[in-house]
Amino acid sequence: MVRNTKKLIRRYAEKYYPAEAEELLRETDRYYRQFLAEVPDIGGRDNMLADNLEMGLLIFAAYEASGHRMGATAIDELMEWRYEMLAPLGKLIDANKQWQMNLGYAWYRCYKKKLDQKKAAGEWGNAWGMEINPDRRAEGFCFHLIGCPIAAFAKAHGYEALMPHLCASDHGLAKLMHAKLIRTHTVALGAESCDYWYVGDKSAAANGAYGEIV
């Protein structure tokens, strides 16, 4: 994910700041390495969610390197380009097929077991905690992520205004998988957890009334 995000940042820099693109990219890399050194170790390649933290840090690094010019609007455009890159997912995953969502549950249960073991051993720092289907949803795929190392870093560095734009990318990714993400609270907006409930985009739940979706 980091490699692809670097490609997207290069694309953006060359599009909007061609005369200074190379310097901006060098500064982005410098800030990124600095930010990586600041955050707790959450498992690297051993943790499937670590890529999300690294992507967030890279985007924050570009924000700093650009003198805060690559802010909310840039993130929105970067995420649109990211959806284009990940479009093939739509041929592999269809959230309207419950058996595929059930596979997601099986996979995440294995991951949660590993996560809990690492946390119990005092490893993986402030990595997201996880609850699988605490809302007892019968349809789709539901889990909660407890805490957020990206939001914690953003709060520590004054980047809170950028977080809703990063969080919004979850909705765009859901669309690629023929899903709708129903989410009512996030850590970035002050909650203790982020709730995720993916349902097929053809389901009744996708068109239901659940209050504000964030």
Tell me what you see in this structure.
- It is built from nine helices and four strands.
- By secondary structure, it is of the alpha+beta class.
- The mean pLDDT is 95.
- The radius of gyration is 18 Å and the shape is globular.
- α1 runs antiparallel to α2 and α1 crosses α4.
- The chain has a four-stranded antiparallel beta sheet with strand order 1-2-4-3, with helices on one face.
Structural descriptors:
214 residues, alpha+beta, 9 helices, 4 strands, four-stranded antiparallel sheet
Summarize the structure.
By secondary structure, the chain is an alpha+beta fold. Helices cover 52% and strands 10% of the residues. It has a 4-stranded antiparallel sheet, with helices on one face.
* Termini separation: 23 Å
The number of helical segments is 9
Series of secondary-structure elements, N-terminal to C-terminal: HHHHHHEEHHHEE
Largest sheet report: 4 strands, antiparallel
- Structure classification: alpha+beta
Strand content: 5-15%
Give the overall silhouette. Answer: globular
Low-confidence stretches: none
